[in-house]
Amino acid sequence: MISNPTKPNPRQSYGTLLFVSALVLLAFILRIHQLGEQSLWYDELLELDIVQGPLSAIGPQLPRHAAMPLDYYLMYGWVRLGRQDFWVRWPALLVGVLAIPLTFALAHRLFNQRVAYIATLLMTVALFAVRYSRETRPYALLLCFTLIAFLGLWQVYRTHKMRYWLMTIVGLSGAALSHYFTLFLLAPMGLFVAGHQLLHLRQPRFWRHTACFALAILVLVLIFGLNGRILVLYRLSYRFSSVVVQPETLTLPADEKPNRGPGPPLESRFFIENMLTPLTATSPSGLVFYNAFFLAGLLSLAYQRQPYRRALLLLCGWLLLPIFLIYTFLLYRGTFFATRYILYTLPAYLMIVAYGLDRLAGWLVKSGGWFSYRQFASMGVPVLLVIPALIAQSGDLYTYYTAESREDWRAVGQLLSNYAGPDDVVIAVKAEPPINWYYPPASAPFGTYGRTEPIRAAMQQHPRRWFVLSSYSFKRDEKLREWLAPQSVRIAIDRRIVVYLQQEGRSAQDLLAEVKQFNLPQKSLTYAHLADQFKQAGDVETSRAFYRQAIALAASAGQKARYEALLAALPDLNDTIIIE
Question: pTM for the full model?
Fold first, then answer.
């Protein structure tokens, strides 16, 4: 039986409640700060485009997005109460904050109160957790349900009370309804259950636990079956199992893999940048700090009298097996790897780090006679040791808050709302979901303009056209950009999105004169691109004014210097030939 931690007295309980409450408040502040300042990005808008439609249409669209329905149905009700960017991110924020007390509860039961304090503090400030608690995607929900599932599983074997199986099944069910990769959690959980069963073959209560775990698997099968995913999962699992007996299939050329891609690379740099760095910090010192204590936690398994061996083994399985299986699956499929896929392993990593830090602090307190007060040292030393992690995370959080948004679809919607007429057509190639959300008058089903024929049909019906092209359609719209270049005005929203205004019977110079009067997005790139077009049209005076505005809006000294050089290179007005 797994040993119980020492029960705290009422005074300790009050201090614990105060500490966890303070961390919950801090987590809330970090996650709500500038929550609606940046535009919703493409993946968020893919989900919102589905949930803004009828309820009956949600389910049929999910297979195309390889999505599970729980977050979508929750968001369906939520967006009926408001559509502001700030508002639609609240559900992720709330479950992201809920992960903080759940982390404390699990770490406290796995180890002790000190480890729980440290792990919860690290979880509170972890950029990885903060970031996905601020996006309208199911990953914060997946993280929360994963914590519930492991808390229930540990309590089952800690107390042998069968009611905790209900918590485990609820956690696994919620996670499965949030994301496919919940299935990879069954590997560490299954090994944990099987290990206890093999060690206690003659004890009936362990057989009951094994039966309940089998019931949990059956519930997941029913969940996937009710969502119409059984055949898909069967095909994927059957083909994926071939990797076990034929590992050479992982190295097949990209065009021979199911998704026609190379998959994630097998390089040390890839693992550091896409797996270790998200779990730790971006700075080299932060990376070394976290992994040093992580290794310290793992090495403690070598101690024969290690009281937390089972806890550490469970956390190692929770961390390593899903990451390995996700990587192998994506490599087999030939699909790109996204760091958000491994978010639900973050608590396991941070708990091992916290335990390693606590072990080192305990050794210092025990061996260092220079500490005057043992009670102070028992908590003061861990606090001192955790400071480098807090510094590293504060730097990452500052960079995250001040970074330029991925793409500004909100600015596109505002531009169209202000200047697109009722008879205009908006042709958004592979960007129908963002336009559907930010400019509903131009709503079109996802994929409408993925082919040439619908684009031509729309152009025949509407002489005035707005083309929205982005990095998501770059390969598809390359020829379209070449065709638009000489006869349209290019309004660059950011480095990913460009809006072209084109109209039959009007030249690019005529359209430039119209755009000159627009209330444009206050972005240096927007004004700089238009300044270049005004220069090419011979309107040096307007070009000069737009370059000056670009300089005023420049986000960096380098950008400012580049635009100043372009401004200085403009010809003098007296020498300019105005093109009639």
Answer: 0.91
